[in-house]
Fold this protein.
Amino acid sequence: MAGSIPPGTPLLEADLANRYGMSRTPIREALRRLEQDGLVEPGRRGLQVRTRSPQEILNIYEVRIELEGTAAHLAAERRTELDLARLEAALAAMKAASPDDVDEAMSVNQAFQEAVWEASHNRSLIELLHRLHAHINSYHVTTLTTPGRWSDVLADYERLLVLLRVQDVTGARQLAEAHMTAARDLRLQLYAAGPTA
């Protein structure tokens, strides 16, 4: 997840066992889990770190746009006063954060997104969104560093909070889908800009 092993690198059980000082059994189990999560794939010599492509970005976002829209819709429909308080606190943390501190920006952004997911009160949906988020995080570059993106994100989240408060399910869905569509387009630009994206 940290990108210390580049895409396409073979993941041999014996080498990993030596590297991490453990037996091959937990390594085998970890590789199986990583494969289930789509983070490693079959290669010429067993499993390898998954390679990335623009088509994969499109595939991930195709699903994520729909799921984020559904999460926002359900959050607008089902949110509680406690959910709204959590969302307000998450938004306040974002406003207090420095967009120049990438780790902090990513953390507070994720906290707001997760607060929306939690407000949907749909555990299966939340689990799927966490898995998709893990795939996006494996690209190691955030769209939040794109000029103007941080202010756009804050504006979107402020509007979303208003829509959730008044329980506008259609508006919340449309805003969440538009927000993720913009993220997809930026992610594709970042991918095209270089191998670290």
